[in-house]
Amino acid sequence: xxxxxxxxxxxxxxxxxxxSKQVLMTARNIADDLKGKVAALIIGANLDSAKIQGxxxxxxxxxxxxxxxxxxEAYNSDVYMKIFIKIVKDQNPDFLFGxxxxxxxxxxxxxxxHTSSGLVMDCTDVKLEGTxxxxxxxxxxNKVIAKLKFNEEHRPKLVTFRPNTLMPQNxxxxxxxxxxxxxxxxxxxxxxxxxxxxxxxSKETSLTEAPIVISGGRAMGNWDSYKILFETAEIIxxxxxxxxxxxxxxxxxxxxxxxxxxxxxxxQLYIACGISGAIQHFAGMGSSKVIVAINKDPNAPIxxxxxxxxxxxxxxxxxxxxxELKKLFGK
Length: 331
Description:
The chain is an alpha/beta fold. The chain has helices spanning 18-33, 49-58, 77-91, 102-115, 227-236, 244-248, 279-285, 314-329, and strands at residues 3-7, 37-44, 63-68, 95-99, 119-129, 132-139, 144-148, 157-161, 177-180, 212-216, 239-242, 269-273, 290-294, 308-310. Helix 5 (227-236) runs parallel beside helix 8 (314-329).
């Protein structure tokens, strides 16, 4: 019997994130084919076990492990790593899945080291080939698609998935067992200490979870110009991003950066406004299902990579787009 453990993540409202649900349901699909079981692990503070149990049950999870303690409110690598590695070793699953987030990019390599197991990160698909998993991921800024298999001797086999790339089949809900993991941390022995936690007051859609992303490049000129992008995004429930050139110019914060040195997004629709389309930017959004480019330079590289292109000034096009979307959505 194959056992799959998924590191699930929740948002500021305590709900399981959409990318985590996609990974959980994918794990359920695989477990069904292999007659296995799926468990979910959540680490955090002030966790609503009843809400989590209901949401994870709908994803086909049979067992939930909660590490719930007030000391876990702020992410501390030193603390989270100790808890994560202990639980992974205790559960000893065949596979360990997670979303390719900043959170898992820290924890999964550590777990791979401490369990001497194989790790593949930022994957875009997974399929069964017999009883083995065939993992798909892009490499070299989306120029190469790699198909990988694990050494069968490795346990657990660790995989993180790029948000919004998995398309799992519907699953049958399960009644989930909830297990509370004791959190015993010697605060005096910690090498890292959190002095202050500043939470964002924004309720904007997360870049990595958004089905639609509108990004602005250096052509935006300043932060105030992003107002038109935020107004357009609000109409269609989109998130707003920025290119590295815009961030480096001080027009937008790094938290909005999409690209090789920023966030990787895979929305259904990506609208690039005034972005030239350098390979570093494409590395962060190249897996978008549909790409629309707005740029007044007809020779911009983005036009070789987009599905639809508009050669014109973004400050002429986006306001028209905004008004047409308002009519379409009745807002």
